[in-house]
Amino acid sequence: MPLSHLAACEGRQSVLNPAGRDAQDVLGLIWVMFGGALLLWVLLGAIFVYVTRVEPREMPRRWGEALIIGGGVIFPVVLLGALLAYSLPMMAPQRAAEAGLKVHITAEQWWWRVDYELPDGRRITSANELRLPVGRRTGLVLNAHKVIHAFWVPALGGKVDMIPGRETYLSFQPEKPGVYRGQCAEFCGASHALMAFETVVMTPEDFAAWLKAEAADAAPPASGEAYRGAAVFAREGCGGCHTLRGTQARGQVGPDLTHVGSRKSLGAGILEMTEDHLSRFIAHTEALKPEVAMPGYDHLSLEDLRALAAYLKGLT
Ligand code: CUA
What we know:
- The chain has 316 residues and is an alpha+beta fold.
- The chain has three domains: 14-90; 102-196, Immunoglobulin-like (Sandwich), CATH 2.60.40; 224-313, Immunoglobulin-like (Sandwich).
- Helix content is 40%, strand content 19%.
- The protein is elongated and about 90 Å long.
- The two termini are 22 Å apart.
- The structure holds dinuclear copper ion (CUA).
- Residues 107, 110, 149, 184, 186-188, 192, 195 line the site of dinuclear copper ion.
């Protein structure tokens, strides 16, 4: 089943189900603003009923002026000023990049380049999935390649635009291990709605182990079929666009596939990662993701497709 169909019922992509400090702050702000708006609505409704039903006479001029200056100028200035004072201090921590792990995320058409920068400067390249340690603040450095996109993981924090030529920042402090869905939130072309990703929040120990595995080179084929798949990968020139670290494949155009088989989703959050979906995606790329740069490889035989899928799924 496409992952997108699961999202709504599980609350994995909802600001109402916060799983991090930043999302908690945002939700607090939502409730305060909702409460304020409700109060204002009730107050205005009461005034309206009073002047039309209870006391429908002409109001003394002094009263009218007091209502305009008090209710039209002073009250909104105080209310909006208070909301501003309450919300402004929330912004700085949501952008604070602490020393430690930093993740560079670049929005492509229509997928995510994800680069983990370790404190020692080393970089580990991945794609289409974000992994974060629970309880720590991780800085996110956001960029876009061709057009404006927006980075949004509602369960973990606010939404920030990703703008070509201008770096933007965000940081997350997740508080509950789990898998949360992120979604591009700025229209960026034909496959905008198909530009999602999973954020996996892990315990610091699990995260360290995962990062170590992610830093390793691509695993060699482990079965006869996977071996044949590796040959198809080489023969079809997949390495011209995709990187498999430790092999001849060093393409930079498409997502890094070094550990593609370990990801939860395929095609930037649109399909669950299975061998069947891999062969379907490779054969009918354009049908599954309109206007994507990768052509569909529907000329491959079913055996070749299956072998290729087995090879890629084995890249964990
Ligand atoms: Cu990327 Cu919308």
